[in-house]
Design brief:
The chain is of the alpha+beta class. Helix content is 16%, strand content 26%. The strands form three sheets. Strands 4, 5, 6, 7, 8, 11, 12, 13 and 14 form a nine-stranded mixed β-sheet that branches. The protein has a three-stranded antiparallel β-sheet with strand order 1-3-2. Strands 9-10 form a two-stranded antiparallel ribbon. Strand 9 and strand 10 form a beta hairpin. Helix 1 crosses helix 2.
């Protein structure tokens, strides 16, 4: 068992315990430190803090016992993986729609994590035993790029990039109607819907968290072929709120085609979509080992491209956004 003792700097007054510890112990991920705190393995001045987000005063003596992780709870399953890139530190895959990222109640198997445990000899432990390697997630019915960490060091570096918003995450979306502006910013806080608690919504700054999405219309589509006016839009996530693009595009007045939660009923679109037409298309990161910026691309799947004209140029979505 690892054992660490640290003293909180005096200038950390008012800061969260988990954030300060992540800086003082950079080899441990924030989620790992949160887990250790919740399980009672972090002592602040000899007492167990109530939660990882407790505010510090500065000068505290902290003792951290890093207990061994329990074996992975996800069973290995020989499931296909569409690999875009793989090296000793990470892998990038193109997730098909309809696949859950990690085991959860109601989805104990058949997930990407089950396939990853079978494919990889090592995966990072930064997100806990049920989510080995998982640095970020995609909704079940969103397709596209997902990055997976093989080592704890890679996980820590990648998680820091997502946290400080230095990654470049771009999505393709098919939306209802033709947005009036060819490009724009949607800067609107997101929080739980005040009535329907399983949904998110644009709310007041006091009720939600800041959220910024920028977008560019690549091309209006329809009505010929698809039977309704829709548009292909590239979106860039500058923050990572739950359902952010789906909520923001609905707020713009152009919800995603086929979105059962934020898009409303499907009318006049042929073929009728079976899921929200949202695809994680481009991901740019700084590689945790080389320090070089790298971009990965994944073409959208057939259930998305069926609405697009042959040979459509997606390059405008990689420009300034």
């Amino acid at each position: 068992m690892e054992h660490h003792e640290v003293f909180v700097p005096g200038d950390a007054t008012g800061r969260r315990l988990d954030l300060v510890l992540a800086e003082l112990l950079p080899h441990l991920t924030r989620s790992r430190l949160q887990s250790l705190t919740k399980s009672g393995h972090v002592l602040v001045n000899g007492a167990k803090p109530a939660k990882p987000g407790v505010s510090l005063r500065g000068g505290e003596h902290i003792v951290i016992q890093v207990v061994a992780l329990t074996p992975l709870s996800a069973a290995a399953e020989d499931l296909p993986l569409d690999l875009v890139h793989e090296d000793a530190d990470l892998l990038v895959l193109n997730k098909p729609p309809g696949i859950v990222t990690h085991p959860a109640p109601g989805h104990p198997n058949g997930t990407l994590v089950n396939a990853l445990v079978h494919h990889c000899t090592t995966l990072s432990a930064g997100s806990g035993e049920a989510r080995p390697g998982i640095v970020h997630r995609l909704d079940k019915d969103t397709s596209g790029l997902l990055i997976v960490a093989k080592t704890d060091a890679a996980h820590q570096a990648l998680a820091a990039q997502f946290a400080d918003r230095s990654t470049d995450k771009r999505y393709l979306a098919l939306v209802r109607g033709w947005p009036r502006d060819a490009h724009g910013r949607i800067n609107a806080p997101i929080g739980r819907h005040p009535v329907e608690r399983k949904r998110m919504a644009v709310v007041s700054p006091l009720q939600g968290r800041d959220a910024l999405t920028t977008y560019r219309v690549i091309r209006p589509l329809g009505p010929d072929g698809v039977g309704a006016n829709i548009a292909l839009v590239a979106c860039r996530l500058h923050t990572g709120r739950t359902h952010q693009i789906r909520v923001h595009l609905r707020h713009l007045g152009h919800p995603i085609v086929g979105d059962p939660t934020y898009g409303g009923p499907v009318r006049g679109i042929t073929p009728e979509p079976a899921r929200q037409m949202l695809h994680a298309w481009s991901l740019e990161i700084m590689h945790p080992r080389t320090g070089r910026r790298v971009r990965y691309l994944a073409p959208p799947p057939p259930d998305f491209t069926v609405y697009l004209p042959a040979g459509i140029d997606l390059a405008p979505g990689l420009g300034p956004l």
